[in-house]
Design goal:
about 675 residues, mainly alpha, globular
Length: about 675
């Protein structure tokens, strides 16, 4: 199994953490009789040898030994080894040491294809876990379509393990997609087999799996009543599972692989089945909403839990009517099942104002279970509990008196102030208590930032000029070297700007900040307090052009200059130059500023810059829409972009990649700005 391992010069090879000298020990660890050692070794393989999906020269050197481990029946947990091989063979080779990486990934894949017969053998392995992992490898690495299809067909006929059958259906769909584009007749055979598997006499799970794969490769073969069929099959499958639900995994070893396994849904197969179908349906949003509602009304709490998590993906990507599914998610808050309750809270917190249909359920939970109002972390400061946070973020006025009770209690989460602005005028009764807490924030504590900034944010939103003494106390009293001092100063300065003329006492403080890291915020506030453009325009100009001013400061300075309007005319030459250079956010902010200062769209310069930024850099759309809204009828040359945005079914940053917990909220804010701007147009 490890023949030749000591002949490899591992010390000359590399992985994510440097020298690959430890790789032989890891490979031997994968064959250990000790489960903890095996899991630790697999964890390290993913963490270093195949870090974030990358392929190194040491990864390539491991492939022959991993193949040998996969076929050795004496080795336990071989399914994990096969999954690792599938991941290595699917690597794109990006992000490591430049140009040679793609070649390493290609060579690793070639080595796996050369050993493709190994995976054909493993499809009939005695270990069900191995049989479950093998079909994906078979399709990817055995380049003999006729044999692959014959093996899949044979295994579907003889296999009795439901989880393996689902893996076989997924592999069949993958096979069809890989060969359809090439016009291979074997792809048509695979599609026909999937169509047969989607109907009786096959088990509900297999039928669901086949429907999901058909939706991805041959949607024209889906039944007309797809959603009712899928919901019925899901419930039939759940009924079967109730009669023989497997025991849950124990706590296991505390490794990355172990933690990821424990984070999987309780019903992982059910989650994969429905997630595949949702993904394949894509933009068929009405069908997906109906499917979610069917899942959320299932008698099985595991089905409902899976649906809650899937709803988050739908809401993040698509602008759709959420009232019915959100109401059903709210109904899960009364569930005794911990996972289901926690999933519902997590999703509702992310929805902000879209969570309003669940507000009655959230309020009932907050009242019924006051212990959920504050979340006490073992190693972190207390935070606002999820149900109360979701209720406040939704803008439901019933959150205000509950927050008042929390403010009057012995423990007040630092983040309470962050949700207060979402309550609008309903938060006004909280103002005195917030003001008193700000007055008691220590000036030199390690947690001054965590305590002060949320309170300042709340009082800024409320425009509470009576908190001026407490704001000035912070501004004047924080010692140099305090952790995140500039962030606290910036928040305090923004509060002064919100107070406007009522903050005239702070004018000397603001002038004193015009040469600091907080210069742009100070100039903005000084303009709000005094209206003296001549004092702030030179400061803003410096921050537009100073290469050491920080990544976001030029765009922020341009934004302030735009709001000054004609009073900032002296900045026009610099702003016009900035429209043609720098990051997209800087170009867009500069173009908006030029338009607002001159009152003219400058069709040869401003409009092309803004149109290009809108299309190519969706993060700039809120800035551009805000500019158009501020211009009133003068913003008409870009009203077509706003109308198209309101007609688009997808959220504006749906393709940005990554997960942003504020993405839905920011998209809804963009839509409100667009509606407001077009409303002024006269119903356009």
């Amino acid at each position: 199994m490890f023949r030749g391992i000591d002949e490899v010069d591992w010390a000359s090879l590399r992985h994510a953490d440097g020298s690959a000298e430890d790789v032989p020990r890891l490979l031997r660890g994968l064959a250990s009789a000790d489960p903890a050692e095996r899991e630790t070794a697999l964890d390290r393989m993913y963490g270093a040898v195949h870090h974030q999906g990358d392929v190194y020269d040491s990864t390539l050197a491991c492939v022959p030994f991993l193949l040998a481990l996969a076929v050795c029946e004496e080795v336990c947990d071989r399914a994990g080894v096969v999954e690792l091989l599938v991941s290595i063979g699917g690597a794109r080779g990006e992000g490591v040491d430049g140009g040679g990486v793609g070649d390493l990934a290609a060579r690793a894949r070639a080595a796996l294809c050369a050993g493709g017969d190994v995976f054909a053998r493993l499809t009939g392995d005695a270990d069900a876990g191995v049989r479950r992992a093998a079909p994906a490898a078979l399709v990817r690495f055995l380049d003999r379509p006729a044999r692959v299809l014959a093996l899949l067909r044979e295994r579907i006929t003889v296999e009795r393990d439901d989880r393996v059958l689902l893996a076989l259906a997924e592999a069949l769909g993958l096979f069809a997609r890989r060969h359809l584009s090439a016009g291979d007749a074997h792809a048509d055979e695979a599609v026909d087999l999937l169509a047969a598997l989607s109907g009786p006499p096959y088990e509900p799970g297999m039928r669901l799996a086949a429907l999901g794969q058909l939706a991805r490769c041959a949607p024209e073969l889906l039944p007309a009543d797809l959603v009712p069929t899928a919901v019925r099959l899901l419930r039939d499958r759940s009924g079967q599972r109730f009669r023989g639900r497997p025991a849950q995994d124990g706590p296991g070893v505390d490794t990355l692989a172990g933690r990821l396994r424990r984070l999987r849904p309780s019903d992982e197969e059910g989650s994969r089945l429905l997630r595949t179908l949702h993904t394949a349906l894509g933009g068929r949003v009405a069908d997906r909403v109906a499917l979610l509602c069917g899942q959320l009304t299932s008698p099985d709490p595991l089905d409902r839990c899976n649906a809650v998590w899937m709803s988050a993906g739908l809401f993040r990507e698509w602008r759709t009517g959420v009232a019915e599914p959100v109401t059903l998610i709210g109904a899960q808050l009364g569930a005794e099942e911990g996972r289901l309750h926690d999933a519902a809270v997590a999703v509702l917190v992310e929805l902000f104002e879209l969570a309003l249909p669940a507000a009655d359920h959230l309020h009932a939970l907050v009242i019924r279970r006051p212990e959920l109002r504050i979340r006490h972390g073992e190693r972190s400061a207390p935070t606002l509990g999820g149900p109360l946070k979701a209720l406040a973020r939704a803008g439901d006025a019933r959150a205000a008196p509950v927050l008042a009770e929390v403010l009057a209690g012995p423990v007040v989460p630092h983040d309470l102030g962050l949700v207060t602005p979402h309550l609008g005028r309903a938060a006004t009764p909280l103002t005195p208590a917030l003001r008193r807490r700000l007055a008691r924030v220590p000036l030199d504590s390690p947690d001054t930032h965590e305590r002060a900034v949320p309170l300042l944010s709340a009082l800024t939103a409320l425009g509470d000029a009576e908190s001026l003494p407490s704001v000035l106390r912070l501004l004047r009293g924080m010692p140099d070297g305090l952790r995140l001092r500039d962030a606290v100063t910036g928040a305090a300065v923004r509060a002064l700007g919100a107070f406007g003329g009522a903050a005239r006492e702070a004018i000397p403080d603001l002038r004193g900040l015009l040469e600091t890291e907080c210069a742009v915020a100070a100039a903005d506030a000084l303009w709000s307090v005094t209206g003296e453009a001549e004092a702030v325009v030179p400061v803003l100009l410096r921050n537009l052009t100073d290469p050491g001013s920080g990544r976001h400061r030029p765009a922020a300075a341009a934004d302030v200059l735009g709001r000054l309007g004609p009073a900032a005319r002296t900045a026009l030459p610099v702003l016009r130059r900035l429209t043609g250079s720098g990051e997209a956010s800087e170009r867009a902010a500069a173009a908006c500023a030029v338009w607002r200062i001159t009152g003219e769209p400058e069709r040869e310069q401003v409009l092309p810059v803004l149109r290009a930024a809108w299309v190519e850099h969706p993060r700039t759309r809120t800035t551009i829409a805000g500019c158009v809204a501020a211009l009133g009828p003068g913003g008409a040359p870009l009203h077509d972009l706003l109308r198209a945005e309101l007609m688009s079914p997808r959220r504006h940053r749906a393709d940005a990649g990554g997960y942003d917990s504020h993405g839905i909220h920011e998209d809804e804010a963009l839509l409100r700005v667009c509606r407001g701007a077009l409303g002024r147009e006269g119903g356009g």
